[in-house]
Amino acid sequence: QVQLVESGGGLVQPGGSLRLSCAASGRIFSIGGMGWYRQAPGKQREFVATTTNRGVTNYADSVKGRFTISRDNAKRTAYLQMNSLKPEDTAVYYCNARIYYSGSDYRDSWGQGTQVTVSS
Asked: I want to staple 26 with a disulfide (CB 3.0 to 4.6 A). Which of 2, 48, 54, 72 is the partner?
């Protein structure tokens, strides 16, 4: 029905950069907010960044100034540009989106995740 697919993860050295993508597909009336979350082994999933339908953004303090979230509504895609990566950024990164099936009916959907590993 509705699917979110993340891509762009990989292995990078400290100080490197990656850009993640999240594409939504399926029966969609509209998409509200979209965001990125991450989960490291043995840790709780945490908020990274969100963007509203009109591009208003919010960031976790740990990534502010290094990461940038953006979206292309025509492509139903959100992005996360990650610069100056640190080993502590290592995690599985998940995309989240509020999918509207009508003007008022919605479901918060999650992707399967993409692995980001920062190591020398």
From this structure: 2
